[in-house]
């Protein structure tokens, strides 16, 4: 469906909108009470209506999936999973605006208290253009062997996308 609506989009852009617009609210673990995390649901449940009208994408060339199979968090992927998180890591992501008008995105974070995620509080992505932004993740207070989940929520008007973050301390 997304390819039919946007025939010029790359597979990376299509995957991006499916992931970043997925629903995560009211998704629970097997007990029906505990909220699911990214290990349970990945990016969430596909929301085709939101994906079809998405204006912000993150593109990843197909070769990056092969060339960075062991360090996918370093490419412009619409989520972050670091299986052996050091004390600190700095990453970049590049958002692409698929509309002709500039769009302003407010950024909010959800993270446990022992995981620090730093990112700009807002970005402006030019119409049909790109905006690079930095994400700093500090996990020095996360105990060894522990896993933490966080989310970068980006909102522009009625539109909202999410980039999940999962780290594991060695």
CATH fold-level topology: Immunoglobulin-like
The top level CATH class name: Mainly Beta
Biggest β-sheet: count, sense, barrel?
A: 5 strands, mixed
Shape estimate: globular
Strands in their spatial order, largest beta sheet: 2-9-8-4-6
Helix content: 10-25%
Can you name the CATH architecture? Sandwich
Radius of gyration over C-alpha positions, nearest whole angstrom: 16 Å
Distance between the termini: 40 Å
Low-confidence stretches: none
Q: How do the helices and strands follow one another from N- to C-terminus?
A: HHHHEHEEEEEEEE
Given the structure, what is the number of helices? 5
Characterization of this structure:
This protein is an alpha+beta fold and 170 residues long. The protein is built from 5 helices and 9 strands, in the order H-H-H-H-E-H-E-E-E-E-E-E-E-E. Strand 8 and strand 9 (159-168) form a beta hairpin. The strands form 2 sheets. It has a 5-stranded mixed sheet. The chain has a 4-stranded antiparallel sheet with strand order 1-3-7-5.
Defining key terms:
alpha+beta; 4-stranded antiparallel beta sheet; 5 helices; 17% helix
């Amino acid at each position: 469906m997304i390819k039919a609506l946007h025939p010029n989009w790359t597979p990376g852009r299509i995957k991006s909108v499916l992931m970043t617009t997925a629903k995560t609210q009211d998704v629970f673990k097997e007990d029906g009470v505990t909220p699911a995390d990214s290990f349970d649901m990945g990016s969430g449940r596909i929301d085709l209506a939101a994906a079809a009208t998405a204006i912000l994408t993150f593109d990843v060339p197909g070769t990056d999936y092969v060339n960075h199979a062991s360090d996918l968090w370093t490419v412009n992927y619409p989520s972050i999973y670091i299986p052996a998180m050091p004390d600190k890591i700095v990453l970049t992501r590049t958002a692409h605006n698929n509309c002709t008008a500039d769009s302003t995105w407010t950024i909010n974070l959800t993270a446990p208290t022992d995981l620090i995620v730093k990112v700009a509080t807002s970005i402006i992505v030019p119409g049909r253009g790109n905006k690079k932004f930095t994400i700093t993740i500090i996990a020095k207070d996360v105990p060894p062997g522990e896993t933490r989940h966080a989310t970068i929520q980006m909102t522009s008007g009625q539109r909202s996308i999410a980039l999940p973050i999962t780290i594991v301390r060695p």
